[in-house]
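TA notes, week 10

Several of you asked for a full example with nothing omitted. So below is the full record: structure tokens for the whole chain, then the designed sequence directly under it. When grading your own attempts, check the secondary structure regions first.
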């Protein structure tokens, strides 16, 4: 049989079919992500008390984390009253 015979054409078609299915799957996943992100963006602020408390606690933790990071950068080997370093007598 020749290399370009009927079997070669069928194998190429299988590859194209798989490729089209793969692209369709990727497109479907992208469309789903867009829908989820658009719906999430339209909701706006949290509307119930539990959600507001969770957001408030998260903001407080983030603020404490930032201030702790600033304190560490200002005093990487301990604060002035931490007992580390040289002592004055």
């Amino acid at each position: 049989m020749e290399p370009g015979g009927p079997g070669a054409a069928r194998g190429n078609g299988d590859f194209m079919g798989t490729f089209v299915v793969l692209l369709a799957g990727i497109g479907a996943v992208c469309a789903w992500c867009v829908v989820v992100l658009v719906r999430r963006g339209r909701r706006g602020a949290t509307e119930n008390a539990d959600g507001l408390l969770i957001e408030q606690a998260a903001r407080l933790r983030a603020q404490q984390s930032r201030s702790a990071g600033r304190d560490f950068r200002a005093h990487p080997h301990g604060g002035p009253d931490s007992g580390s370093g040289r002592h004055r007598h």
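The mean pLDDT is 77. Use that as a sanity check on your answer.
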